[in-house]
UniProtKB/TrEMBL annotation:
It comes from the Bacteria. PROSITE patterns: CYTC (PS51007). This is Cytochrome c oxidase polypeptide II. The keyword Protease does not apply. GO terms for molecular function: electron transfer activity; heme binding; metal ion binding. Keywords: Heme, Iron, Metal-binding. It holds the Pfam family Cytochrom_C. The keyword Iron applies. It comes from Gracilibacillus boraciitolerans JCM 21714.
Length: 147
């Protein structure tokens, strides 16, 4: 596992905190693809993943409220649409034995790659702030160059 810490300024942090307060379970996806992805997410993923920071119901998987601001997928892969699709299609190959392997969609193969791409478009829209804060952007650029 490869946890990274991104140091952000106080101002960026405050921005993020404010943004997190605005995340909502009723978020409406913007692009058509993301809207279809959101529907798929509601069917196959919402039981284990919340998409709002205020969710306090007991959930199994990580809260994805600001997933669009992340630098890593499952703390292993560099953040990209491709990495998200790979994770959705075959999480076992990325992290054997992880807690998502019991997901029903993996048992009945109800999610195809084109669905996973739509879900990825949706997840990438989930952000605390419209743009990732500057430090996160720089971090992603450096990671992309070094890998
Ligand atoms: C049975 C519960 C369950 C279901 C259903 C489920 N997940 Fe997960 N998911 C998990 C768990 C647990 C993890 C944490 C795995 C780990 O990193 O060890 C996870 C991790 C993730 C991550 C990585 C999160 C991060 O912090 O980087 C993403 C993205 C994700 N899931 C997306 C989805 C999508 C999309 C679906 C539906 C197609 C889905 N999950 C369905 C339990 C679930």
């Amino acid at each position: 596992m490869d946890f990274k810490v991104v140091v952000v300024s106080q101002e960026e942090y405050d921005q993020w905190i404010e943004g997190m307060k605005n995340t909502s379970p009723e978020y409406t996806a913007e692009s058509t693809s993301a809207q279809e992805g959101q529907e798929l997410f509601q069917n196959s993923c919402i039981n284990c993943h919340a998409i709002d920071a205020s969710a306090n119901n007991p959930i199994v998987g990580p809260n994805l409220a600001d997933f669009g601001d992340r630098t890593k997928v499952a703390a292993i892969k560099n953040y990209s649409k491709e990495a998200i699709v790979d994770w959705i299609m075959d999480p076992a190959s990325i992290k054997p034995g992880n807690g998502m392997l019991g997901a029903p969609y993996l048992q009945d193969n109800s999610i195809q790659e084109e669905d996973a791409e739509k879900i990825a478009d949706f997840l990438m829209e989930l952000k605390a702030t419209d743009e990732p804060v500057e430090s996160v952007k720089k971090f992603r650029e450096n990671e992309a160059e070094n890998n």
